[in-house]
Amino acid sequence: MTVCCKCIVTGRVQGVFYRAATRQQAQLLQVTGYAKNLSDGSVEVLACGTTESVAALKAWLWQGSPAARVDDVQCHDVNMTIPQNFL
Q1: pLDDT-derived band at 60, boundaries 50, 70, 90
Q2: According to the model, what pLDDT value does residue 85 have?
Q3: Least packed by Cβ within 10 Å: which of 7, 9, 34, 45?
Q4: Which residues are catalytic?
Q5: In this structure, what is the dihedral angle of CA atoms 62, 65, 69, 74, given to the nearest 10 degrees?
Q6: What's the mean pLDDT in 10-33?
Q7: C-alpha distances in Å from residue 20, one per residue of 10, 16, 64, 68, 85
Q8: Would you say residue 53 has pLDDT above 90?
Q9: φ, ψ at 34 (rounded to 5°)
Q10: Which residues sit opposite 10 in a β-bridge?
Q11: Could you please report the per-residue DSSP string of 18-64?
Q12: Would you call 5 helix, strand, or coil by DSSP?
């Protein structure tokens, strides 16, 4: 079963390769989604995958890239409707 969650990560997370490191970790965990910078300096992450893989990525978001300083991670589940004929 696929689950999805959206997280907002605050702290020093822009300009420190946080999104690139998140993408790499997500690929290792076989999680799909995105990470994007927001205008307030935070990063929004959408993560979809198995319950275990999404939970692992959510835990990793507190670490981030070596130069990052994560102050807070707020996540909430989201419903993603995937058409039956979607490949």
Answers
A1: very high
A2: 53
A3: 34
A4: 19, 37
A5: -30
A6: 96
A7: 16, 9, 9, 12, 31
A8: yes
A9: -155, 165
A10: 72
A11: HHHHHHHHHHHHT-EEEEEE-TTS-EEEEEEE-HHHHHHHHHHTTT-
A12: strand
